[in-house]
Design brief:
The protein is an alpha/beta fold. The protein contains 21 helices and 9 strands. The protein has 2 domains: about 180 residues, Rossmann fold (3-Layer(aba) Sandwich); about 130 residues, Cytochrome-c3 hydrogenase, C-terminal domain (Cytochrome-c3 Hydrogenase, Chain A, domain 2), CATH 4.10.480. Helix 2 packs antiparallel against helix 21. The C terminus is likely disordered. Bound molecules: iron/sulfur cluster (2 copies) and FE3-S4 cluster. The site of one iron/sulfur cluster has 13 residues, from helix 4, helix 8 and helix 9. One iron/sulfur cluster (SF4) binds next to helix 4, helix 8 and helix 9.
Length: about 375
Amino acid sequence: MADTKTLGESLRLHGVSRRGFLKFCTATASMMALPPTMVPAIAAALEKAKRPSVIWLSFQECTGCTESLTRSHAPTVENLIFDHISLDYHHTLQVAAGDAAEAAREEAMHENEGEYLLVVDGSIPEGNAGYSTIAGISNLQMLEESAKGAAAIIAVGTCAAFGGLHKAEPNPTGAVAVSDIIKDKPIINVSGCPPIPVVITGVLAHFLTFGTIPELDEYGRPMVFYGQSIHDRCYRRPFYDKGLFAETFDDEGAKKGWCLYKLGCKGPMTYNACATAKWNQGASWPVESGHGCLGCSEPDFWDAGGFYNALSIPTSDVSKLVTVGVAAGVALGAATAGLNHKTKSNAAKNHGTVTVDDLEKTS
Ligand code: SF4
Ligand code: SF4
Ligand code: F3S
């Protein structure tokens, strides 16, 4: 049955006090990287908002994206997903199985037509429907059916956003992204392999609160989280600027925490919030653990990344990119072997609204 309670009513029903409610609003602002001054507006929106129904489909994937979601800590996924939205269908987390599970999906679609949020992780095997089916239904058919009545779609993870691992050469299943199939619905790409947990919950929180999708870059990613490159925010950047680079993973430079550019770091070409939001409750992130960024939030990173090959740009040219900005980004895009820079340079041009630093400051 569709839930007719507002979020405010639902929270009170769960015994959440006014103080607890405002705390939740502050956490929600933080998740969305909004400043604390937005808390009253968020509180007003949440008082009126209905608990949205969420249908979560998993296609060709490794469950890493769901694993990531369950590690959210701000707030926990239990708070967000199980108390404040109605998660009506999720292959991995739902209790129901078989016919009962499919009946739950159909009921949610029927009861909440035009209002539910469809979340997808995994790519879709367009080349041969038989590669991946659920309850005898091909991924393609299930996506098309489920997207029809959705208010919006969130493509979680690089597989759903860009095709990911399965789309890498030779792409035996003909894997494609959600946006390659669905053309008539708003789609938010939350890329990353997997995406950062608080970024997934932050995007859900935005829809939950305002019923709208956040501002997106040209790859359909929320600018508030994907607005700046890893390189822009990297704590090793001062070493990069001084020309101090580790040459191997165990040399003196590596031990001193110097820049990992020559060891294949793709931070200059990669847009994500890892350097500030970090992973595992803010414990660390790839570069902090001594490994260069692989570019996992960018399209075609499996084919284009060349994980341990340095970008084919002299570091002096990367410096120019950083200094000159958009124009240099275009030039740099032409000079490198893989990642598509047009969007990133456009994204760089548009970014600069609310930053992940703001998120940290307000949390
Ligand atoms: Fe797994 Fe990465 Fe694809 Fe997520 S994006 S399903 S973590 S391969
Ligand atoms: Fe950090 Fe990589 Fe940029 Fe070096 S190249 S500053 S390690 S993001
Ligand atoms: Fe992915 Fe690079 Fe972050 S590899 S996890 S975008 S540091």
